[in-house]
Each structure stands twice: as structure tokens, then as C-alpha cells.
Amino acid sequence: MRFARSKRGLRLKTVDSCFQDLKESRLVEDTFTIDEVSEVLNGLQAVVHSEVESELINTAYTNV
């Protein structure tokens, strides 16, 4: 059970770091302000994070 929880946490951190890398490397355009795009990405990150976490929890219960 702990192993599955730690794996789930690791996968979620990977998703979070992908978003952070994107924000740091791609927010150089002048079309939108960095704050506007960052706000959009943070909202998207929260949604994806909760969806992935729910799916991983369901997968963990299925594998038990």
C-alpha cells in the first residue's frame, strides 16, 4: 500500500515538473503577459493533477 502511494506521489511530481518546465521555458512570448499565462497553466495543472491522482487511486484499488 505504501509502495503504491509513493509511486502515485512520484508520478504526480513528474506531472507537476512538466508544467513547471513549460512555464520556465515557453513563457517568453509578448502576446500574453507571463502572469496571464501562468494563471491559466496553474489552473490547468490543478485540474490535471486531481484527475491523474483520481485515476491512479482507482488503479491502485484495482490492482489490490
TrEMBL record:
Keywords: Coiled coil, Cytoplasm. The keyword Transport does not apply. It comes from the Eukaryota. It comes from Homo sapiens (Human). Pfam families: Leu_zip (PF15294). It is found in: Cytoplasm. The gene is LZTFL1. GO terms for cellular component: cytoplasm. Self-associates. Interacts with BBS9; the interaction mediates the association of LZTL1 with the BBsome complex and regulates BBSome ciliary trafficking. Regulates ciliary localization of the BBSome complex. Together with the BBSome complex, controls SMO ciliary trafficking and contributes to the sonic hedgehog (SHH) pathway regulation. May play a role in neurite outgrowth. May have tumor suppressor function. Belongs to the LZTFL1 family. This is Leucine zipper transcription factor-like protein 1.
